[in-house]
Amino acid sequence: MASKETPPLHLPNLSIKGFRGIKDLSISRLGRVTLLAGKNSSGKTTVLDAVRVYAARAHPDVLSEVLKNHREVAELTGGHGQKNNVDSRIEAIFHGRDASKDAIFTIGPDDDSMRLVVEAINPEEERWPHRPPHYFSAVPLRTLIASFGDNKEIEIIWYFSPYALSTKTARDRRVYQDTGSVSEHKMPTPIICESMGPGPLGSNEIERFWDVIALTDKEEKIGYVLRLILDKKVERIAMTGNESKSRRMVVRLEGQSFPVPLESFGDGALRLFGVALALINSKDGFLLIDEVENGIHHSIQSRLWRMILKTAAENNVQVLATTHSFDCVRGFAQAMTEYEGSDGALVRIERKDAEMWAVEYSEDDLKVAAEQHIEVR
């Protein structure tokens, strides 16, 4: 378990109610590193979405990104033929796709003072004095508002209305558009949160992460974490090229006088490099990894997890990752038993129709599973 000197976790446990496909889910314990296992469509990725929204304190940009990632966006053609992407089906943020008055979702730990609450309500006319009085009765508006813990002053974060009430598209698909400004100054400071999808990091993400740590002591940590995984010793790593020329990562291995592209090691090396970069750039925050096992050979799964456990502890990162691979679960269990002082948790997400629940495994369970190769997916 983690030592007393270890900073407290942002989420020692997690409760999600009314968010997207989750009606009600409680996980009594999260670790410094938590692996969420389960079948496809069990809701694992939705848990990551919820943590991301929680970390951002429901910032509209993050809510929009969640909608876009799940293709909850419509392309509508305007009067002059121009095409506009609008945040459609905003009700998809709520369970049951219900954004009617009094729709609500909550995300956070058991501690009420650290819980995020987002509601859809009818807007109050006094909040928008520039609108004519008849506007609020003529156009059916909804306002998304958020409160956080002891911050009882509810703050407007978004309001929206049907994009085109007279069109068949709007009636059939309930398409909404953002119709107002955002005020955020009352909301608490968000928590750093980086997300990784199932594939390798894109070139833009790699450049963004690398530019933050280049020529700092964190640059050496990247080589260190790669050496924890790769069979060959990495002496140096750098990014070549410039803004006008394609930039790429190169490494110099022990015994070689010239660098080689990181891509030459395959997608697995890129995935590992991306995880290491994201871990170091997530200091004091969250790192969310969807389908963490993608591109990683089963033989180095335990080394991957030892690296994640060690680097997360050193950088005070809380990691939540998903998998549906038994090799990944077994590698996690092995790393947990081998890495002294690790603070990890394995949770299996189960679903039957609209009901979801979490099956949590103790450290003793993980030890037995690793030693006897018991499947715990």
Question: What topology emerges from the helices and strands here?
Answer:
Blueprint: E1 14-19, E2 22-27, E3 33-37, H1 44-55, H2 60-69, E4 73-77, E5 83-87, E6 103-108, E7 116-121, H3 135-138, E8 142-148, E9 151-162, H4 168-173, E10 176-178, E11 193-196, H5 203-213, H6 217-227, E12 234-240, E13 248-253, E14 260-261, H7 267-281, E15 286-289, H8 301-315, E16 318-323, H9 326-338, E17 344-352, E18 355-361, H10 363-372
Parallel strand pairs: 3-16, 3-17, 11-15, 15-16
Antiparallel strand pairs: 1-2, 1-6, 4-5, 6-7, 7-8, 8-9, 9-10, 12-13, 13-14, 17-18
Helix pairs in contact: 5-7, 6-7, 7-8, 8-9, 9-10
Relevant CATH superfamily of the largest domain: P-loop containing nucleotide triphosphate hydrolases
What is the helix content? 25-40%
Molecular shape: globular
Largest sheet: 7 strands, antiparallel
Average pLDDT figure = 78
Termini separation (Å)? 23 Å
CATH class of the largest domain: Alpha Beta
Compact overview of the structure:
This protein has 377 residues and is α+β, with helices and mostly antiparallel strands. 28% of the residues lie in helices and 28% in strands. It has ten helices and 18 strands.
What does this structure look like?
With 377 residues, the protein is an alpha+beta fold. The chain has two domains: 203 residues, P-loop containing nucleotide triphosphate hydrolases (Rossmann fold, 3-Layer(aba) Sandwich); 121 residues, no CATH class. The chain is 28% helix and 28% strand. The chain has a seven-stranded antiparallel sheet, with helices on one face. Strand 1 and strand 2 form a beta hairpin. Helix 5 packs across helix 7. The longest helix is centred in the last third of the chain and has 15 residues. The radius of gyration is 23 Å and the shape is globular. The two termini are 23 Å apart.
